[in-house]
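Need tokens for this chain, all 241 residues.
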Amino acid sequence: ANYVRTQWEAMGLTVEDQVFDVRGNTYRNLIVKLPSESPSGKGKIIIGAHYDVAHDFPGADDNASGTAGLIELARLLKDAKLSQDVELVAFTLEEPPIFGTEKMGSFIHAQSLHEAGAAIDLMISVEMIGYYSDEPGSQTFPVKPLGLYYPNTGNFIGVVDRLSSRRSTEVKRAMRDATNLPVHSINGPAILPGINFSDHLNYWHFEYDAVMVTDTSFYRNTAYHTKDDTADRLDYDKMAK
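Here are the structure tokens for all 241 residues:
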């Protein structure tokens, strides 16, 4: 948390703490608000990544990669002429044993927006964006038939959405316009393993549109939640894209 704060403050940004207690310990989400110059009336865009890691593992892909992306987004957006308010949030407590509970940092944040009656256009969860492979067969799927529709080489980024939404298609289109990194999207039911395995699930709980941008986690990166999730395994060129 201190590292993220230091990076953002060095850019001249104001960082807000959202402090909460869990099991006798104090935790914090870190928030940077970037106001629009000419509001479009569409509501706010939330972009978030969790900075906690599972157990005492290095967590380079999960989720230092997403956190690095969030830090860099602040640098790219701070002087941009925005047509919508943007809120960048570094979450804590995404990992087990808190995952799936109302003590997740993202649940705390989503609940605060809901209670304030905030108009939210879209939430984007940046969840593992650093691991890629050009080896055929390096990409796996929660169910085999998906292999008929998506590449079996893990050199793309994914946009994940719930079945009833089409926001992933919109995000995919925007990303394809901005980068030559292959981008694919999927809409799936909650029973499909992995669809809701990040902070976006808590915004769905409050009926906000939300998507996850991801390298597909354990469906590609075999070092997920192990001691081998180290920085030397990441592809920084693709992560930057």
